[in-house]
Specification:
- It is a single chain.
- The protein is an alpha+beta fold.
- It has two domains: 159 residues, 2-Layer Sandwich (Beta-Lactamase); 128 residues, Beta-lactamase (3-Layer(aba) Sandwich), CATH 3.40.710.10.
- The chain has 13 helices and twelve strands.
- The protein has a six-stranded antiparallel sheet with strand order 2-1-11-10-9-8, with helices on both faces. The chain has a two-stranded antiparallel ribbon with strand order 3-4. Strands 5-7 form a two-stranded antiparallel ribbon.
- Strand 8 and strand 9 form a beta hairpin.
- Helix 8 crosses helix 9 and helix 8 packs across helix 10.
- The longest helix is centred in the middle third of the chain and has 21 residues.
- The two termini are 36 Å apart.
């Protein structure tokens, strides 16, 4: 397959939609200080991505301004395109399921809501914003926004559908509250909470029209949640309307190194989104990151720093030049192993990086995921000299 280069086309065509300028010069603070060489960083990334994945797309920005991008491989293998039998190449603007990179988007919307609404705080309880017919168990009645946003609820379940959420909140299944335990349910619950705040009257009408019907409540809440994320987060970054549904030619998820095996379609996540499931491109993720980190169009600077300091929608990792803030995403399917990886990373010298990969090797302990995440940081460190 002929490789397609996107560095020039993205700068020419897409720059006006999201960013205001583009610089490709190294920024030197002092003549005797190490300098970050962004082109070396990109070259190492491309080489590693080509050797380790079926297909990838990534974008880099500096100080909120688009710098470069790369993509290669089949988003959709010709054999998996039943409609035409023609393969679809991966590009930096190809939308695909971003898995848990959804959590920063959800967390950003929640934090924006908390900033704007003086009646709700980080330490407010979640329970009042859940279906009124749910009989919340006593151990969860006091759980707060802060605990969900920081994965300190103690909830161990990982299901994100309405049945799983109800089971957790009405029948239990927790560890010790306060202990850190990463759970998709901590963010999936906001698929219900946000609509019960922003569309309280409409959600009450659904409850009145369909008493005790969790499926109807979830359908309404999920649709409102998608609108909320678009309004509060994506639109503020100039991103066209998005949702949790794949397009007909969306990337399939493959096995690495055997890309000839049929790919998996992750399907429509609308009714289980919140902790995962949004469909966006690496370029759109970069736009979100750039506006989030270099403007106050999405959240004020104080909220951005609070999210980084308290690891809301991010994890912290030390580099040789300061702290990076990131969130990854992964989907895994077995027999054989297929899936995806992805990350958004804010590096300490105001470099933003987003990457999406539509393959996974057999790594029962997530070796491939952590190996590539660590290599990206290693390349960043090596690019200073």
């Amino acid at each position: 397959m002929k490789r397609t280069l996107f560095k020039i086309t993205l700068i020419t065509i897409c720059l006006g939609s999201f960013f205001t300028s583009c610089k490709k010069d190294d920024i030197v603070l002092q003549s005797n200080d190490p300098v970050f060489h962004i082109d070396e960083f990109a070259a190492m990334l491309s080489a590693m991505m080509e050797d380790s994945n079926i297909a990838f797309q990534y974008c880099i920005a500096k100080e909120g301004q688009f710098y470069t991008s790369d993509a290669n491989g089949w988003a959709l293998n010709p054999a998996d395109n039943a409609a035409s039998g023609i393969g679809v190449e991966m590009t930096p603007t190809t939308r695909m399921n971003i898995a848990s990179i959804t959590k920063p988007l959800t967390g950003t919307a929640v934090m924006k809501m908390l900033y704007d609404d003086p009646n709700i705080s980080m330490d407010s309880k979640i329970a009042p914003y859940l279906p009124s017919h749910w009989d919340i168990i006593p151990t969860l009645e006091g759980l707060t926004f802060r605990q969900c946003l920081t994965h300190t609820t103690g909830i161990a379940a990982s299901g994100t559908g309405i049945a799983s959420l109800k089971e957790t909140w009405t029948n239990g299944g927790i560890f010790i509250q306060g202990d850190y335990f990463y759970s998709n349910e901590n963010f999936a619950i906001f698929r219900l909470v946000l609509p019960y705040i922003f569309y309280s009257d409409e959600m009450q009408e659904v409850e009145n029209d369909f008493p005790g019907n969790d499926d109807k409540i979830n359908e309404a809440a999920s649709a409102y949640y998608v609108e909320i994320i678009n309004d509060l987060v994506l639109a503020k970054a100039g991103i066209d309307y998005a949702d949790c549904k794949p397009t007909t030619d969306a990337p399939r998820l493959y096995n690495f190194p055997n890309g000839n095996l049929s790919g998996v379609d992750p399907g429509d996540w609308t009714l289980s989104c919140g902790g995962g499931g949004w469909n966006l491109s690496s370029f759109e993720l970069l736009a979100y990151m750039s506006y989030f980190s270099n403007s106050e169009s999405i959240v004020p600077a104080s909220i951005r720093q609070k999210m980084w300091d308290e690891s809301i929608g991010c994890v912290q990792k030390n580099t040789e030049h300061g702290m990076s803030y990131s969130h990854g995403g992964a989907l895994t399917y077995n027999s054989p192993a297929r899936g995806m990886y992805g990350w958004i990373i804010y590096f300490p010298n105001n470099v933003q990086f987003s990457v999406l990969i539509n393959s996974r090797r057999a790594d029962p302990n997530w070796e491939g995921y952590f190996e590539q995440f660590n290599m990206i940081h290693d390349f960043y460190n090596k690019s200073w000299h």
